[in-house]
Design brief:
Blueprint: H1 7-26, H2 32-39, H3 43-49, H4 53-75, H5 81-98, H6 102-107, H7 114-136, H8 149-163, H9 167-185
Helix pairs in contact: 1-2, 1-4, 2-3, 4-5, 4-7, 5-7, 5-8, 5-9, 8-9
Keywords: DNA-binding, Transcription, Transcription regulation
Protein name: TetR/AcrR family transcriptional regulator
InterPro entries: Homeodomain-like_sf, HTH-type_TetR-like_transc_reg, HTH_TetR, Tet_transcr_reg_TetR-rel_C_sf, TetR_SbtR-like_C
Length: 200
């Protein structure tokens, strides 16, 4: 069980994470000395809370990962295999193009914090289960593997970065790219709706 932080320590922790969030949103690489300066705290204080920039970045990304993991579990309760899979993927790509902390954390091969590993494993497990259901239902190509999902989502996020634009433009572009991808992944019949339509 984690020991609660003292009020002053908790205040410092929140200040550090808030400053780090601003830096990430600015596109500035996290350096603990820079975070300490901007937060008006001693470097030692920052290092006591976060041993590495990676640990701090993962903490910044944690709320987004938590929300995605919760959505993944919720998606598994949806009886429609195509809707649940595509809903999960749209949530994932939205997060990747709107939260600058998520892509580097998601792409990292090692994690600084155990909680990050736990959340990423939850996302991977949910994605694999949703894809397996869609394959079993015959609504998605049988050659699509669970290991393909992360690279495909990262590829869309990278394409959106290249495209650029305002946050609204980026989200719209991500949706268009993902809809186009899903069009190629879905096994369709004349009666099934197209990806991105309201019924999906």
């Amino acid at each position: 069980m984690t020991t609660p932080l003292r009020k002053d320590a908790a205040r410092n922790w929140k200040r550090i994470v808030s400053v780090a969030r601003d830096l990430v949103d600015e596109g500035t690489p996290l350096q603990l000395n820079d975070v300490a300066r901007r937060a008006g705290l001693g470097v030692g204080t920052v290092y006591r809370h976060f041993a590495t920039p990676e640990a701090l970045l993962e903490t910044v990304a944690a709320p987004c990962l938590e929300a995605l993991a919760a959505h993944g579990q919720q998606a598994l309760t949806d009886a429609d295999p195509w809707r649940s899979l595509t809903g999960f993927l749209f949530h994932t790509v939205d997060a990747q193009v709107t939260d600058a902390a998520l892509p580097p954390v998601a792409a990292a091969t090692t994690d600084a914090l155990p909680r990050t590993t736990e959340l990423k494993e939850s996302l991977t497990s949910a994605g694999a289960a949703l894809l397996a259901r869609a394959r079993d239902a015959g609504v998605v190509r049988p050659d699509l593997a669970a290991a393909d999902l992360v690279p495909l989502m990262c590829g869309i996020a990278h394409a959106v970065d290249v495209h650029g634009g305002t946050p609204a433009d980026r989200a719209d572009t991500a949706h268009r790219y993902l809809a186009a991808l899903l069009e190629g992944l879905r096994v369709t019949t004349s009666s099934t709706p197209r990806p991105g339509s309201p019924s999906t």
